[in-house]
Amino acid sequence: MKTVILINPFLDRESEFYQPRRIKEELERCGVACDVLPNAWLADVGEKIGENLTGSYDLCVYLDKDKYLPRILEKRGMRLFNRAEAVELCDDKMLTHIALAGLPMPRTFFAPLCYKSGGNEDEKAGEIGSLLGYPVVVKECYGSFGEQVYLAEDEGELAILSRRLKNLPHLFQEFVAESRGKDLRVICIGGKAVAAMKRTAEGDFRSNLGRGGKGEKVELDGEARDLSERAASLLGLDYCGVDLLFGKKGYLLCEVNSNAFFGGIERVTGVNIARLYAEYMVATMRK
Ligand SMILES: Nc1ncnc2c1ncn2[C@@H]1O[C@H](COP(=O)(O)OP(=O)(O)O)[C@@H](O)[C@H]1O
Ligand SMILES: [Mg+2]
Q: Which residues are within 8 A (CB) of 48 and not within 5 positions of it... i.e. 6 or more apart?
């Protein structure tokens, strides 16, 4: 059988070690040996790309979202769960929206990157405001735990945010008012939805558990299942957490996480995500 390496961004706090520990236990239950390593390797890019990294591993469960290491490991011939391209498409929220264009999602515009000083943020803010109305959601393309997601209540706030984010990839998005402080998190494995929870926050429009949102188990309806599974398949993901917003006319796709934490949703739903993911990987490799 193949040997597996699990790459985790953090290996210091117990809460952050939960995912690799559980996946390792479940892979070993299936008779697959694995090692867990942090993502802090220095990969050699050149004639012998990544030779110093891969050792005798055949597979990698990549629990991080840095985009360079997966590309290097794939160049070395490793099969990654998730694949490098899928990780990259999820890591950048704008790339995710472009890849999923055609699925129901909030109206979204990207902010052209600008490295010059000056520029007319006030004019730009006026234009975005007239297209999307207020409040308007502003997101950095790279971010997690709701920390890089903002709400601009009026043109003044939007101009301030635009100025602040000018040199960073970011997007403007219609605020889905019906979904304020709540969303639906769906875990998909091998393109199939396996668990879902509704997340609700008090006093914040963002419902991330890391910001104090509370999760509750829900039965997945056909529409949420279909939208999540289509997103996971279009992005080529083995494993992901899809965030759906509750729109006026139905669900809207918010974002897709290639490295979604599963400890919270396991507790809320009782679904053994680590086991399902390990079994899926073993079945895929046996094909
Ligand atoms: N367009 C939107 N309208 C309403 N709420 C939103 C919108 N976009 C995001 N949110 C809320 O903010 C949270 C964080 O946004 P998300 O895009 O998932 O970023 P992150 O990667 O930081 O989790 C979502 O879970 C949702 O509760
Ligand atoms: Mg999210």
A: none
